[in-house]
Design brief:
The chain is mostly helical and 251 residues long. The protein has one domain (3-248). The protein is built from eight helices and no strands. It has helices at 3-24, 35-91, 96-113, 130-139, 146-171, 179-199, 204-228, 240-248. α1 runs antiparallel to α7. The chain is rod-shaped and about 95 Å long.
């Protein structure tokens, strides 16, 4: 399910809880809405609100950290790809096939995650790494002198680094936020907003304020999910490093 859909569901649940509590309020006996009852409810809601605020802040920090890590990994893999292509070029013309494999794999990856407008999304099997085929081609080279042996060793090391970073990126394609964790957080938010509606006067101003507050918490969860799913949606990581690397390959 997309982050937008989850955000809309959260908004509907949270705002609906407040409206339901406002609707139930007149049916409650007067002593249920006494000052003493309000004080007890306020204490309980303060505890839940504190836990919710802590969880939200931790989720935002975790999602932002994951987003920054993936951005750094893309920059690192782009640099390794350029260095690998340069090492193969310095080895000699025997690496022409290996450089072609590298260039094609980078182009496919860029088109898969950051397709041009109107282009069909390319499916990539994370278990079928083109870097392994490239590594085999590099390993099959027969260096004739010390310089070529050094370039072959460097190319093998860089290919291994690219393969490792690629696996890490594919491992992080899905969401890292457990669904039950999100359900509990939304449940807490529904309780908080229900308490708001339970003691709030029924007028347009209060309803508008509750609507804005519900939009705010739903927007926070939307941002968390967008940052966590870094390769899709509105806040996906930039493909500029890989596009720049692709443009320099084969020169």
């Amino acid at each position: 399910m997309s982050a937008t859909a989850i955000g809309l569901i959260v908004f509907a649940l949270v705002f609906g809880s407040a409206l339901l509590a406002m609707y139930v309020q007149p049916a409650l006996p007067k002593h249920h809405l006494s000052a003493e009852s309000k004080d007890v409810v306020k204490l309980g809601i303060a505890l839940i609100a504190t836990m919710s605020a802590l969880v939200l802040s931790l989720l935002v920090a975790s999602a932002k950290s994951a987003y920054d890590t993936r951005s750094s990994q893309l920059v690192q893999v782009a640099a390794d790809i350029i260095l690998l292509d340069r090492a193969l070029a310095r080895y000699g013309p025997e690496t022409k096939d290996a450089r072609s494999v590298l260039q094609r794999s980078v182009a496919v990856t860029v088109e898969r995650f950051w397709p041009t407008e109107g282009a069909k999304v390319i499916a990539i099997d994370p278990n079928a790494s083109p870097v392994e085929a490239l590594y085999d081609k590099v390993e099959a080279l027969s260096p004739q002198n010390e310089a070529q042996r050094a370039m072959q060793s460097q190319a093998q090391s860089l290919a291994a680094d690219v393969s490792r970073t690629r696996l890490l990126l594919f491992e992080n394609l899905g969401s890292s936020i457990p669904f039950p964790f999100l359900v509990v957080l939304v449940f807490w938010l529904c309780i908080i907003f229900a308490s708001f509606g339970l003691f709030a006067p029924r007028n347009a101003t209060v309803i508008a304020v509750l609507c804005v507050c519900a939009l705010s918490v739903a927007g926070a969860i939307f941002l968390i999910l967008e940052l966590d799913r870094s390769f899709e949606g509105l806040l996906q990581v930039s493909g500029a490093p890989l596009r720049g690397a692709s443009a320099q390959l084969g020169r």
